Structures are given as C-alpha cells and as structure tokens.
Give the backbone structure.
Amino acid sequence: MGSKILVVGAGYVGLTSGICLASLGNEVVCVDNNIEKIDLLQAGKLPIFEPGLLDLLNKGIDRNLLRFSTDLIKHAKNANFIFLCLPTPPLEDGTADMSFVYHVVDEISPHLNGSAIIVNKSTVPLNTSSEIKSRQLNKAVAVVSNPEFLREGSAVTDFLNPSRIVIGADERSSAIKVAALYAGLEERVFITDPVSAECIKYMSNGFLAMKVSFINQAARFCEAIGADVVSVSLGMSLDPRIGRSFLNPGPGWGGSCFPKDTAALAAAALSKQSPMTLVEQAANDNKLHQNEIARLITKEIRDLGKTAVSIGVLGLSFKANTDDTRDSPALKIIELIEMSNVACDIRAYDPEASIENRATFSRVDSISEAIIGSDLVIILTEWPEFALFPPESYASLMKGNTIIDTRYVLDNSLFHQCGLRVRSMGRVQS
Ligand code: UGA
C-alpha cells in the first residue's frame, strides 16, 4: 500500500487528483465540508460529470484505497501528504481570493506531524508556497507546489498520461517523495523551485488562452478577406513549431480556468510593474470576439426578415465532454442574441450541461426537439453528436435552411448537398 494522502477539497481538481492518486496505489482520503457531496461519493456516485472518473472512484472504494470524510483535523493528523485542492476565485481586481486556502492551512497547521508535506494544487498567486510555509507552527513541515494541468472532459487521461508533472520544492528530498506518489509516471516529473512551479501554471494557461485568441482573431480577419480559417489553421499547424492543438477557432474561450487565471496573471504582472500585455490583450480580444460572433448571428437573424424567430441552440457547456457552464461562451452569446431586439424563441439542447431553463431559453432533451421547426440552428459547443446527427435529419426537421456553426464541426459539403447553408466566422461558403 502507498502513502497516506489527504486531499482537501472534493471539487473538480481534488476529486480527479484524489481518485487518480488512489488508482496509482496510494491510500487517499478526500475531505470536504459539503456533507451531501461526501455522502454521494461514499455511495460511489460523482457530483460532476468527468469521463472515466466514476469507474476509478468505485475501483478505489472497492480496493479500500479511497475514502471520503468531512473530518479535516482527524485526517490531517495521520497524513503524510496534504494536497490542497481548494477554490481560488477571482476578486474584483482580478487577484485570487486566497481565503479558502489560508483558512484550511491555519486550521490544520497545529495538527500536522513533522514529516508531513503540504502539496499545493490550487492555482495560487506567486510565492504562495512560502506564505503557506511561514504559517506553519511546526517548521519541519515541508511545502511543495504541484500545479495541475487537467482539462475538464479529459482530466483522467491528462492525470494518468501527463505531459509533465511539475513539482516545485525548496528541498529535493521533498520533491522526490511527492514524485514517488506518481508511480509509473516518474519520467514525466519536472522538478523546480516553488515560485517557478506556480509561475509555470499561470504562464501555461496564459499562453494557451493567447493561442486560442490568436486563431479567433485570425477567423475575423479571414472573414474580412474571404480566406478560410479552418484551412489557415490546418496549414499553420503543419509547422511543428506551431503545432495543432489549441488552434481551433470557436466562440471564444471560457470555463473556470482561463478567464480567472489570465485575470490573475495580468493583475500579478501589473502589481510588479511588469505587465503581461499579450495576456491582457488575449482576454480583451476574447470579449470582443464573443461580441463579433453574436453580431454575425444577429445579422443572420435580421436577414430572415421575421418579427419572431425560432432558434435551435446546440450546446450550453463551455466546451464538449463537460457539464460545466461556468463562463460558458454559449451562455454569453445567447445573452447577447437576446439583446438584439428581435423576438427569439430559443430551445437549447446539451447532453450534460448542469443548468436548467433560463429566462433566455428553454432547455429540451434532444437535438430533434431543439431544431424542429426552427428558422435557424446555432452550434455553440463541439459535442460530437451534433456533427454525427445526419444532415438529412437537420434538413427535414428545420423550417429554415441556415446553421451557424461557431465550432467548425460540421462537414459543410454534406450539408450543402441537403440544401442547407452552414455559416461560420471566416469560413469560405461554397
Ligand atoms: C485548462 C487547461 O487546458 C488545463 O491544462 C488547466 O489545467 C485547466 O485549464 C486549469 O487551469 O484547471 P479547461 O479549462 O478544462 O483546461 O479547458 P481547455 O480545454 O483548456 O479549454 C479552455 C477554453 O478554450 C474552452 O472554452 C475551449 O472551448 C476553448 N478552446 C480550446 C478553443 O476555443 N479552441 C481550442 O483550440 C482549444
């Protein structure tokens, strides 16, 4: 049996990390102050949708490697490793709210044994590791930064097949002990100092957000000059220095990480008089892009020349394979469409999104229900089932003939053969 790990926070990062660490043979207890969540997990059920996680949860419970509890202090006393997986939401000025992290750190500090290692996975302001260390009553307790690079929707794969496991520690011995928890993945371990590890996390998300903003800006430029952004992206990506990933244009980036982390990085950089203007611009451009996508949609709606328009929306989550709608571009764009002064009746379908009806749309249970009788269909999330739904069925169910594909997932020529028109920003229309 592996080491005793306490994971504090059974949110998306804590659950994925705890369950995957147990699947690597470690003994793990996940603690959260939400008793309903803990009851659910103890019963082998998940409060979130994440492919592959439910199976590993039940395997961990069956192997007696995974437990859930609300008793933080009891488990802190026995733990060799305390993984902090707590929320760090943005404050009004963009900086991260550290109250959840420091509250837990102060609560457990008097109870930790001298060989305990605090491992921080929360995305935190730079130099938080040393702040956590300075708050320890027992100075023998080590603090290590081990940021997560998990994408929602493929978090299990990302955890078990990581591009890198970044470990930032002042003492190499602590880094080696944390690395040993990732049995079988040692060759992916990258050891550095704590503040550099924290920085790697912010810079990675900042860079990826910038990459997506770049291709979205390119989509608008392609629209202006009549080029095809899908071809442009593909052609660019053949250069291995550029690469294929995070070069898919879309309705703007969202989710619980990019918006929060780019704001925090920009604020941290400004506070050190060392502005990260590229990241600031990426975030500003993301807002502009969503407005431009909404403008394209609104124009299509007005061009229908109707006083009331029936719209089928496909996709509400911030991307495919997740139920998460936090900062979802889909919701933002629906909001912007509603401000267009055309009466719109919107029926929206998403296979997993964790929201109910809103004032702006009614939620339905299938693609067919969303698109039947619609004047216009808008694809806002790239769920594979939207592209797999036969073009003939779109054609026979819809009243109108235009689909706005903000995710570039449809095979346009197949749809044209069925008499449908597919409209995307910066996509050549045949
Ligand atoms: C992101 C990072 O990818 C993870 O490495 C990181 O660990 C995580 O944030 C975090 O900080 O916790 P996530 O927010 O789950 O993961 O989602 P991504 O897959 O990165 O997508 C972010 C947004 O960019 C989504 O709205 C997505 O639709 C958009 N996107 C992404 C594009 O529009 N085009 C792309 O080519 C890629």
In short: The chain has 17 helices and 14 strands. The longest strand covers residues 308-314. Residues 254 and 327 are 5 Å apart (CA to CA).
